[in-house]
Design goal:
By secondary structure, the protein is α+β, with helices and mostly antiparallel strands. It is built from five helices and four strands, in the order H-H-E-E-E-H-E-H-H. The N and C termini lie far apart (about 35 Å).
């Protein structure tokens, strides 16, 4: 099996608290009938959540994503995903922790727009 698929499996088994919260909203087509998968390989990257049909990627970022090297990596990753036809939506961990209703509304607007 390809390394990225093994890594994706490992990430699915080690879900962060924020990923768990968002996954509970998205799983089993709970979010307006839209099917999402988690820790899904897209090219050389593994996206946190993907709706393959609507070509949506949702990323959840912790504080380490504020570091310059990680910002550069995230920008490169986002450019790649966009080049493959995906639209990318990012949330910070603290948004999920402190404003889940706002995250829900932003996600709903994003999904309806696509």
């Amino acid at each position: 099996m390809d390394d990225k698929y093994l890594k994706a499996r490992e990430l699915r088994q080690n879900i962060t608290p924020q990923e768990k919260i968002l996954w509970n909203l998205l799983r089993n087509r709970n979010f307006h009938g839209v099917k999402f998968v988690r820790q899904y390989p897209v090219g050389p990257y593994i996206a946190d959540f993907v709706c393959r049909k609507k070509r949506i990627v949702i990323e959840i970022d912790g504080g380490q994503h504020n570091e310059i090297k990680n910002k550069i990596y995230d920008d490169k990753r986002t450019e790649y995903l966009i080049s493959k036809g995906y639209k990318v939506l990012r949330f910070w961990n603290n948004e999920i922790d402190n404003n889940l209703e706002g995250v829900y509304r932003k996600l709903l607007d994003f999904v309806e727009e696509v």
